[in-house]
Amino acid sequence: EIVMTQSPATLSVSPGERATLSCRASQSVSSNLAWYQQKPGQAPRLLIYGASTRATGIPARFSGSGSGTEFTLTISSLQSEDFAVYYCQQYNNWPLYTFGQGTKLEIK
Amino acid sequence: QVQLVESGGGLVKPGGSLRLSCAASGFTFSDYYMSWIRQAPGKGLEWVSYISSSGSTIYYADSVKGRFTISRDNAKNSLYLQMNSLRAEDTAVYYCARIYGEGAFDIWGQGTMVTVSS
To answer: Per residue in A40-98, pLDDT tens?
Structure first.
């Protein structure tokens, strides 16, 4: 099983600032990585797939980078609606998908 | 619009059974692979099961193998999860999700809560 590890567990950032979230895979997943946003009481929403491609309707302030085992989700200028939990997910070991444990992005 | 709607959750005793359903609309259901994903209260996401577009290929997480059965009816645009021998650790919100490309989940249902407790 490919283990996905996200850091930090909690990130405190002020609105308007940049947030950088990390995700590490226990073995290479190539670029087969997705990022999701989940708000309380809601289903996750796909943000990024293929490590760096924004999903339909996702604002340009969200960007993904990385390949192999190290990945980053960057939110360039935080809006109030961006405070949520973010998950990474690998699909290189298809279809035995695995998720990271999540990073909670909170208002500083 | 593209939509997935789960149903069938509820309270069940340990060792009991439950069948979840997921109704798809707004897209050609038979063209897509589908999965079930769950989230225990206050916890992260756990992939549970996968089914190919025709239903011929199926996979399960080790945690549910032998107890859960995924199926689909393309004529009814529906996905199912039969859950038997339920345990307390199966307590979670269960989501159905559409698979985009090789494995990103691009459409999610709102989830249905399953509680296993005596």
So the answer is: 999 999 999 999 999 999 999 999 999 999 999 999 999 999 999 999 999 999 889 99
**Closest B-chain CA to A97:** B47
Calpha distance A18→A77 (Å, rounded): 5
Amino acid at A63: S
User: Tokens 């999540």 appear where?
Assistant: A102
Pick A97's closest partner by Cβ from B44, B47, B95.
B47
Q: How far is B70 from chain A (nearest CA, A)?
A: 14
Name beta bridge partners: A5.
Answer: A24
Given CB atoms, is A101 within the 8 Å cutoff of chain B?
yes
Name the A residues in 36-95 with CB < 8 Å from any B CB.
36, 42-46, 49-50, 55, 87, 89, 91, 94-95
Residues A81 and B30 sit within 8 Å (Cβ to Cβ)? no
Nearest to A23 by CA among A15, A14, A54, A32: A32
Mean pLDDT of A95-104: 96
Contact assignment for B103 to A101 by CB distance below 8 Å: no
| Res A104 pLDDT > 90 | yes
3-state secondary structure labels for all residues of B21-86: EEEEECCCHHHCCEEEEEECCCCCEEEEEEECCCCCCEEECCCCCCCEEEEEEHHHCEEEEEECCC
pLDDT at A95: 86
Residues in B closer than 8 angstroms to A95, CB to CB, are: 33, 35, 50, 59, 99, 103
**B104/A46 touch (CB, cutoff 8 Å), yes or no:** yes
